[in-house]
Specification:
Strand order of the largest sheet: 4-3-6-5
Number of domains: 2
Number of helices: 10
Helix content: 40-55%
């Protein structure tokens, strides 16, 4: 099978070129970042493959890992060759290219700074404080574990209720008769809170006791028969279950605080339109307290 060469469909970013051609842009540990190829004297290192995959990974055809590696090396070699050809034509002196290089330079510095700020903010102390504060604010909330059978008409629903009263198995009937996508699992909806279901369904489900089966209930989706399997107070998630979300929250909070601090101290002028009369409408100039 022949795959298209990377440059047929992939734009060569100035950022990728800068990574490969700047001789001292990043101090690398030679042993942990070996040279994997060389194009016209420019080293292509293992870390460059990771940069390239991050940059163009979504456009790479599905292929085995070794073929993908060759694809990325080819892409990076093309970047070097074409950026050298561009230098020979002095394209770097063009105003539009200079502006784009400046933009990419600033964006890369911004992303590196924010990444570092976010990483530095995450610590065991910060993680557990966020977790403990969140747990304190949680209120007791009831959950119901239920099954249901969904049919188009009331008559069908009433007929199913009759079968259930005669001793038919609820899960078996759900698999046979329910039009809901969860029919294959016997109509099992798992645990849910009241707000997670449409009002007509939730109102009935939360009034039933464990083991009870409802009369037909009409919603926008059709007619339901509901069986409550269990009721409980929604359990508090463990620290480990939410650690990733906590880390993301801490990092984003620290990054936002840095941005707001820099904005408040900056002199930002809008030259394309008059300044907003209300300072609160200008995020770069918050109202003074």
């Amino acid at each position: 099978m022949v795959f298209p060469r990377p440059l047929v469909w992939c734009a060569l970013g100035a950022l990728a070129a800068a990574i490969l051609t700047a001789p001292a842009a990043v101090v690398r540990a030679q042993d942990s970042d070996p040279v994997v190829a060389r194009a016209n004297g420019v080293d292509i290192r293992e870390s460059d493959l990771a940069y390239a995959e991050e940059e163009i990974g979504g456009n790479i055809p599905n292929m085995p890992p070794e073929q993908k590696r060759e694809y990325l090396v080819t892409y990076l070699a093309d970047v070097v060759l074409l950026s050298q050809a561009a230098d020979q034509q002095k394209l770097g002196d063009r105003p539009d290219v200079k502006r784009r290089l400046a933009f990419d330079h600033n964006r890369l510095l911004m992303e590196s700074l924010l990444q570092g700020v976010g990483k530095a903010a995450v610590s065991p102390e910060a993680e557990h404080k966020v977790y403990d504060d969140a747990v304190k604010q949680m209120t007791s909330e009831q959950e119901v574990h239920a099954r249901h059978i969904l049919v188009p008409t009331e008559d069908e629903a009433k007929a199913i209720v009759v079968e259930l009263k005669k001793g038919a198995d609820f899960a078996t009937l759900a698999k046979e008769k329910s039009k809901d996508p969860g029919a294959a699992e016997g109509g099992d909806l798992g645990y849910f809170t009241k707000e997670q279901m449409v009002p007509e369904f939730a109102e009935v489900a939360f009034k039933l006791d464990k083991g009870q089966i409802s009369d037909p209930v009409k919603t926008q989706f059709g007619w339901h028969i509901i069986k409550v399997e269990d009721k409980r107070i929604k359990p508090t998630p463990t620290f480990d279950q939410v650690k990733t979300q906590i880390d993301n929250y801490i990092a984003h909070r620290a990054q936002s605080e840095m941005v707001e601090k820099l904005r408040s101290a900056a002199n930002i002028e809008r030259l394309d339109k008059p300044a907003a009369a209300d300072p609160s409408l200008n995020p770069a100039a918050p109202a003074k307290k």
